[in-house]
Amino acid sequence: MRRLVIAAAAAVLLAAVVLAGYAWRAWTSAPAGAAAAGGRIIVDVAPGASLQQVAFDLHRRRLLAYPRLFLFAARLSGKDRALQVGRYAVPAGATPRELLASLLDARPLPVVVTLPEGLPAEVLAALLADSLSLSPTLILAAADSLVRGGADTLMSAEERSSFVAALDGGLHPRGFTMRWCEGYFAPDTYHFAVQTDAATVAGTVVGMQLSRVARARAAALPPAVGYSAHAVLTLASIVETEARLPQERERIAAVYHNRLQRRMRLEADPTVAYWLNKRGERLLYRDLEIDSPYNTYRRDGLPIGPIGNPGEAALLAAARPDTAADDLYFVADGAGGHVFSRTLADHRRAVARYRDLMRDRRR
To answer: pTM for this structure?
Structure first.
């Protein structure tokens, strides 16, 4: 009897050893058919997802052969509730042990969002919202609140009065929404943590733009010295829209500074297009006759606010124009740049040449 008990115990022990060895091999080996080692595979953990759901999803993707073993090891380690929402990069051909470490010990990858230069606030808010699963309305509202709260330091009393009057005047064409935060989103590439809230997102992009404006104003040359932050942003947004070549930014800014100093109207097409929601479209002569706070053909000085969100180079150009340039006009040259002119007669000839060029291209 005793021998029988010993034999049974030995058999159980042997089975346990074999089972443990098998489990260890499964725990430290990549599943059959897994991708070759060396690369990275993205694993998304959605809000509300449990570790069990993630484990069986990994199994369906052939990244994990034994999901129950995976879950047992996680519970044994006491980390089964440490899973965070987010995106993770796990090694291709990872063992279950490496998968567990990649998901429970590592931080989620940041959400990378690139905001291009020159686009309106609503477009940039939509890009942020889409990447971060947020409401663009909440981002815009938070950004509006930040700018409105600092308006006394960002704008002169006259600028603020004009902006508020237009905002409350009911003059807006259908589909156009004036926003305090227009111009105040800094174009750049951002790395946000997963589940960053709308207020933090707005504070990040607006804070970046305010820092850039402050640097531009601190480096301003005489034509722009004394400009408010809002005025620098407004002029920079026009320069951003007009400049096709980086080397032309300072000269385009100089044209507008020269016109302002001579009390000439800016006559900038993009400001008219902004109010009419015709960005990138051809303007008609009747469009130039529509009076609005952004029609620089009918109103003196700068428009009441930015017409898009300028990048840092455009901000610096607005604050530091080409002081050697005495041009008052420019027109497209048909090759991506512009022809600059000091006199109206020269400008008209340049316009005629451009129209002839466009006419020839249409034939």
So the answer is: 0.84
